[in-house]
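Q: Could you fold this chain for me?
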Amino acid sequence: MMDTKFDRRSLFRGALGTAGILGIESTFGALRTDAAAVGPKDKIKVTKIESFVLKNSWVFVKISTDAGITGWGEMLKDDAKACAAGALEVGNYLIGQDPTRVTFHWQAIHRGAFYRGGPIKTAISSGIDQALWDITGKVYGVPVHRLLGGPTRDRVRVYGVLNEKTGVNAIKVGPRGKLRSPFKYNEGMMFVEEVAERFKALREKVGKGVDIGIDFHGAVEPPTAMRLVHALEPYEPWFYEEVVQALNVDVMAEIAKKTHIPLATGERIFTKWGFREIIEKRAAQILQPDICYAGGITELKVIAGMAEAYYNPIAPHNPQGPCSLAASLQIAASVPNFLIQERGDNEYSDLLAKPLPPVEKGHRPILTEPGLGITIDENKLMSQVGEPRPYRTVFDTDDGSVVDW
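A: Sure. Below is the predicted structure, expressed as structure tokens.
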């Protein structure tokens, strides 16, 4: 007797195959999306994990399933090859699993390692987490923020390059004198005044209607940081970012008590456990977790909740590519204490199959397509695969010693 039971996935694929044979592919064109071949009640398994290192050191991970749905994520751009290799190792656990158990897999990957945390381990979890959320959103046919409780806002404020056309009116600069940035242990009066005068000139040029953050990049030693914080205060920076090395939490907390300008940090802090100390010690008022380093969408949602309990906003860090931005925008859409998105004005047309919704009045609309809300053009991406950038080392030109940058 012929078995007349068909699951939805088989029926759909059969219809597509018949259409192709009959030459009527266009009949099903409107239905043929990455999410169309499976429903939320159908079983789905991970079949493959791939990683790609680009010449600019961005690292992408792609997860494929037996339903034909793929998910994309990004990882740490430093130690790019290590991250790419580490993602493949996770395949020993993840292949054959249901990709929609995202939080379960986050815990399994994190707690399954004896040595936990740190940038590389957490970056691997972050990229895989983004890709799994991408798949899950496509399975349910909704953007990730819908799975996280729905949108808390209609649009997302961004900063990057001042632009009258797009309305971007927030930027970030570094403290700099006439010839160099501050890196000596205790910079002298002349250099501190140079930095202050340059920032004063910028403030006068752009006016009070532009928000300007100052990124010390963790490259300024504590005595110099304290002097610069006070010297720049009269020109009202929007925030001071990474005023000292990120792990120097007690000194950061001490500086925070001595200035009315908010401190920001987070790009080199990983997981909820790393942010706990920052929050509890009041070492920063603005948290900047990176969705490619700090633990992915799953962890940023938790970090944002912790921050809300202390009345701290989040402003996600983003020096990477389109998955990083798209995943960050999903978080921005789903948490109440979002402040602004770094480099949210980037378009990434060299990697995407279709454009992002444009920035208007300094804001980008929330992404509404399933998953992360973007489509990677694999041909464009593969054309950029290559050797990552080498390590960068900076030296003091006066005595040749190695300095932070």
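A (continued): The CA atoms of residues 95 and 123 lie 19 Å apart.
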